[in-house]
Write a structure and sequence with these properties.
Length: 281
């Protein structure tokens, strides 16, 4: 019985239960796992998180990031793209990646009936999520980790054409040493973006959010920074929607907003959840 069916049958609020799924994608199927938030799970926030090109849903870094987010009120669904499910090292073409992502989200809706659904992921997986969002895919927000703006050493090959079409709120994390995302180029690209896009630069971090010892910080502290910023983003978007509920219709447009307490347009996020300290994983 799915979470939606349990809620309808019981007539009461229930905390989603974690589990592993087999998800049909056309004539094939892939693996997915749902792990509920360890704090505030009853609030129904779910992040569907896709892996990067060379990774899979059980990558150490992806699991650690998921655990940090779960400690801050987000349930997390991880899944394999089809090529990785078949243990291939060659990523599928973008239409196939999007098809797989969409199938997993459909299963999430069926099983969990989330109140707030966020899509995204790291690197290529986040890019696939961003292209779905640009297509108008129904979701409440986009969460990008290490967005691959361009191939390393090829800043002229930008992957940015679809970004201005995104309409949902976005939070994006990139390291300042990430060879896939030159900060100055990203800032120029985002001048054309009209949604509420929070760009969070992680000082000294590379594409895997690793920081050198000379930075004076650890990778665990970097993950805590990402988790805290993501938590604040959801709370801020929820507060914005409440404050501007009576705003007149017909006002459009958004803007790039770096991390910080700047005003921003209303958002679909209806939820709030408490702060929670990081536990090293």
């Amino acid at each position: 019985m799915s979470e939606r069916e349990r809620q309808q049958a019981g007539g009461e609020k229930r905390v989603p239960v974690g589990g592993e799924w087999r998800v049909p994608v056309g004539s094939e199927e892939t693996s997915a796992v749902f792990e509920p938030a360890t704090v505030g799970a009853e609030q129904g926030i779910v992040f569907v998180c896709a892996h990067g090109a060379g990774g899979n849903m059980n990558d150490r870094g992806l699991v650690q990031t998921a655990n940090v987010l779960r400690e801050r009120g987000l349930g997390v669904v991880r899944f394999n793209f089809l090529y990785k499910e078949k243990k291939s090292g060659r990523p599928d073409q973008m239409p196939r990646l999007k098809e797989c992502f969409s199938a997993v989200v459909a299963r999430v809706r069926e099983e969990l009936a989330p109140k707030t659904l966020i899509i995204g992921g790291r690197s290529m997986g986040g890019r696939a999520g961003s292209m779905l969002a640009a297509d108008g895919f129904e979701c409440d927000g986009l969460f990008l980790l290490a967005y691959p703006l361009h191939p390393p050493g090829k800043p002229d090959q930008l992957r940015d054409a679809h970004l201005p079409a995104i309409k949902v709120p976005v939070i994006c994390f990139n390291g300042t040493r990430d060879p896939f995302c030159t900060p100055s180029l990203m800032e120029e690209v985002l001048k054309r973006v009209t949604t509420d896009w929070e760009m969070h630069w992680v000082e000294g971090a590379d594409h895997s959010f690793h920081v050198p010892k000379s930075s004076g910080r650890t990778d665990v502290q970097v993950l805590a920074e990402i988790g805290d910023a993501a938590q604040a983003w959801v709370k801020r978007e929820a507060g914005s929607g409440e404050r501007e509920e009576g705003r007149g219709k017909g006002e459009e447009g958004g803007h790039l907003r770096p991390s910080g307490p700047f005003p921003h347009p209303p958002s679909p996020f209806p939820l709030n959840f408490p702060a929670c300290p990081i536990t090293p994983t």
